[in-house]
Design brief:
With 273 residues, the protein is an alpha+beta fold. The protein contains seven helices and eight strands; from the N terminus they run H-H-H-E-H-E-H-H-E-E-E-E-E-E-H. It is globular, with a radius of gyration of 21 Å.
C-alpha cells in the first residue's frame, strides 16, 4: 500500500536481471506511467506544485510531470543495472510507447489528435533501439515501423532467420535499418479499428488505415465518412486532405486495405445506419 507501482515494477525488473545475470534472458517491462489514473509520489508532485504547476490540469500539471520524472528515473535505474552487471555491451534495449498521449493531458503537437485516433497523434510514438556492435550512437531513422516488427527483429539479432520460421509473421526484421539503411522490404503498414471509439470528447467511427511510403490513407468503414489522404512527409499535422485530388491513389490504397483484411481474416465491422 505504501509503494508507488513504478518503483515496485522497477525493483522487480532489477531483481529479475540480477537473478538471470549468467544466462540469456528476455525481459519486457511495461510501466503504467504515464497512464490514467494520474498518480505520482507525493514528494515528487510537491516539487512541481512548489514551482507553480497546477496539481492535475493540463500537460504541465505537477502530477503528470512527476509521473514522467518517475518513469525517467526507472529507465535510468534499468540501464545503470545493466552497467553494474556488466551486461550493457551484450544487451539489446528497446524503448517505445504503445500509443500517443491522451489529448486532454499530453501535448502531442504538432501531431494531430491523440490516443485512440489513427491520426499521427494517436499512433506515432517515440522509439529508441540500442544494439551493441550494430547501432551507432546518436543515429536517427525516419522509416515507419510497427510493434509487430520486434519479434522478427529479435529473432534476427539473436542468430535466427525470421524467414525460416514456421509461423506466418506480420512484421519484418528491422536489422537493415539498425545497420544504417533507410528502407525495408515491405509494401505498406496497416491499422484496423473495427469498433466505435471515443477520444477528445468525440465519437471515433470504425476505420482502417494504410501507410505506404509518405502516403497515409484513413478509410471509414461503411462510408460513414469520406476517406482522408495525407502526405506525412510534407504535412505532419495532417491539415491537407488530398483525397479529392488523388482519387486513383485512394482507390488503390482502399483495395490494399481490403486485401490485407482478407489475408489476416480480420474481424469485420457491422455498420448500422
Amino acid at each position: 500500500p505504501e509503494e508507488y507501482i513504478t518503483d515496485r515494477l522497477t525493483d522487480e525488473a532489477i531483481g529479475f536481471m540480477k537473478n538471470h545475470r549468467d544466462e540469456p534472458f528476455f525481459m519486457m517491462l511495461q510501466h503504467y506511467d504515464v497512464h490514467g489514473p494520474l498518480t505520482a509520489p507525493k514528494e515528487m508532485v510537491k516539487k512541481y506544485t512548489d514551482r507553480g504547476h497546477p496539481l492535475t490540469k493540463g500537460n504541465e500539471s505537477a502530477t503528470f510531470l512527476a509521473m514522467k520524472e518517475s518513469f525517467d528515473q526507472s529507465f535510468g535505474r534499468i540501464t545503470a543495472t545493466l552497467e553494474e552487471l556488466e551486461l550493457d555491451d551484450n544487451t539489446i534495449v528497446i524503448f517505445f510507447s504503445d500509443n500517443g498521449g491522451v489529448s486532454y493531458v499530453a501535448n502531442n503537437g504538432p501531431l494531430r489528435r491523440g490516443k485512440k485516433w489513427l491520426y499521427e497523434g494517436g499512433i506515432r510514438v517515440p522509439m529508441a533501439i540500442r544494439v551493441p556492435g550494430v547501432t551507432q550512437s546518436g543515429s536517427r531513422c525516419d522509416t515507419a515501423v510497427n510493434g509487430i516488427d520486434f519479434f522478427p527483429t529479435l529473432v534476427d539479432l539473436t542468430g535466427g532467420n525470421p524467414k525460416q520460421l514456421e509461423s506466418v509473421l506480420d512484421g519484418v526484421s528491422l536489422v537493415p535499418l539498425l545497420k544504417g539503411g533507410e528502407t525495408l522490404e515491405r509494401e505498406a503498414l496497416y491499422w484496423h479499428l473495427p469498433q466505435l471509439g471515443r477520444g477528445d470528447g468525440a465519437i471515433i467511427p470504425p476505420q482502417g488505415m494504410v501507410r505506404m511510403g509518405p502516403w497515409k490513407l484513413i478509410h471509414y468503414y461503411g462510408n460513414t465518412a469520406a476517406p482522408e489522404l495525407y502526405n506525412i512527409n510534407d504535412d505532419i499535422s495532417e491539415k491537407n486532405n488530398m483525397a479529392a485530388e488523388s482519387p486513383e491513389r485512394v482507390e488503390q490504397m482502399q483495395w490494399m486495405l481490403e486485401r490485407h483484411l482478407n489475408e489476416v481474416a480480420a474481424q469485420r465491422v457491422e455498420i448500422i445506419k
